[in-house]
């Protein structure tokens, strides 16, 4: 009995304050958004919001497959993932391996990591700036290869790609830093032993480095996926989803429905959609946390 | 031996070339910010003529509709309490979870991990309505509350992971000496947790400073806007004044960059430790 009382006391003092805020400002709002998405104007359960959102072409615009952008924000997020996820992961790992053997690698790492440190709203400004026709450095590079200069964020067919490649520049520092930390944990003796056995550099990379970095790869892929699904600031400041919705993403669509059109029902549908994806993406991470808390 | 030296040389050259390319966009912003716009209109890489000026910085700080100096002050007013409050509450919770068994502990941890994946969009509408109901829309207190609640899950998880690596010997010794739970927490646990607290503070402060979405939905009076909210307002209607925008961008990013440089060790540890246990 006394033990139980002590437990209750500990719970009340240590956990309850945090739990209270978590419930009021995170858990309750989450459940409330799910409810809102399934409620019609009179508050009855219905699928009308879902029907409205999916028939509106804001999320999915199949005409895009014939005519080009826009494809709808859902497809745009998927394209973001298809390009950004492999690129940042592979480049990040390559940089981590390369910089370990280079002089001043720490400084180079800090330079690349800067993209992760700056506010994403500033990152969006930088992306706009580098793709701008006259002042953008991307056009300087393209022109030296004899290609024409243009404001890449201003055309429907290139706006989304400009944002995606710009965000690769911002985000690669993340996977690089994690992989660098992971490389530190691999004992040097493994490589020495492999060298004695006459293994090539490539073989060591694929047989030692990459398999041993697998737990980090899981984290990198998960966190990057979550970021790609939640991307908002960059798009808001650089293109506002334009021109004509051709660089729109789910998170921005949620904001536009909710806080420009003041249609909370439709907005909640998009929020639920994003959350469904992020929860699927986070399954591996939740599994490992669940195992560990046994 | 000779081969490995050549190897290092090649790697170093490649690495620094990459660094140079990587930093080009940032250099562009710096060059545009410190020169009059007429000089950079055809590309900031053209160095003739070159007249350094601070007029873009003063222009951004004292901008007519969205003075940035006010935004920077406002952002500090938000970010400092929105770092201290969740850190205190989540350190308590993280310690409680790691040291005291209580019913539903596993559920609590899973909830915390679950909320790590949650997008802010998922709480936006109810938060807006709750805050309207409480009369806290367009107040800093409301925004600080939301940032505190939003920071609690990941900091709790982070601190719990840290406490799990910390042996409980000293706490038990203090208990034998007659110290109570809170005495132990404040005098033994907190000082030992300093590295983890520094890491979590650096990240939480940076994120609150960098936040745009929550501020966007909760704060709208022109005088109350935060630094990140003022940047879109500087873009101009008919043409983009890149000089002004570059100077403003630099000033808004300098705060997190300073934190990163000063607390680099903790910052990276926080980022790595929070994702990899």
Low-confidence stretches of chain B: none
Low-confidence stretches of chain A: none
Individual helix count of chain B: 15
Order of H and E elements of chain A: HHHHHHHHHHHHHHH
Specify the CATH class of chain A: Mainly Alpha
CATH architecture designation of chain A: Orthogonal Bundle
Helix content of chain B: over 70%
Helix/strand structural class of chain B: mainly alpha
Largest sheet of chain A: none
Question: Can you walk through the features of this model?
Answer:
Chain A has 15 helices and no strands. Chain A is mainly alpha-helical and 294 residues long. Chain A has one domain: Orthogonal Bundle (MetI-like fold). In chain A, helix 4 runs antiparallel to helix 11. The radius of gyration of chain A is 23 Å and the shape is globular. The relative contact order of chain A is 0.13. By secondary structure, chain B is mainly alpha-helical. Chain B has two domains: 52 residues, no CATH class; 208 residues, Orthogonal Bundle (MetI-like fold). Chain B is built from 15 helices and no strands. In chain B, helix 4 packs antiparallel against helix 11 and helix 6 packs across helix 8. The longest helix of chain B is centred in the N-terminal third of the chain and has 32 residues. The mean pLDDT of chain B is 87. At the A-B interface, helix 1, helix 4, helix 5, helix 6 and helix 8 of A face helix 1, helix 5, helix 6, helix 7 and helix 8 of B.
Compose a concise summary of this entry.
The complex is a heterodimer of chains A (294) and B (277). With 294 residues, chain A is an all-alpha fold. Chain A is 74% helix and 0% strand.
Keywords:
heterodimer; A: 294 residues; mainly alpha; 15 helices; globular; B: 277 residues; 2 domains
SSE arrangement:
The complex is a heterodimer of chains A (294) and B (277).
Chain A: H1 2-37, H2 48-54, H3 64-67, H4 73-100, H5 105-117, H6 120-130, H7 137-144, H8 156-184, H9 188-196, H10 201-212, H11 214-230, H12 233-238, H13 250-259, H14 264-281, H15 283-292
Helix pairs in contact in A: 1-14, 2-14, 4-5, 4-8, 4-11, 5-8, 6-8, 8-11, 11-14, 13-14
Chain B: H1 2-33, H2 37-40, H3 55-61, H4 68-79, H5 81-99, H6 105-117, H7 121-134, H8 140-165, H9 169-176, H10 181-192, H11 194-210, H12 213-218, H13 227-233, H14 242-262, H15 264-275
Helix pairs in contact in B: 1-14, 3-14, 4-11, 4-13, 5-8, 5-11, 6-8, 8-11, 9-10, 11-14, 11-15, 14-15
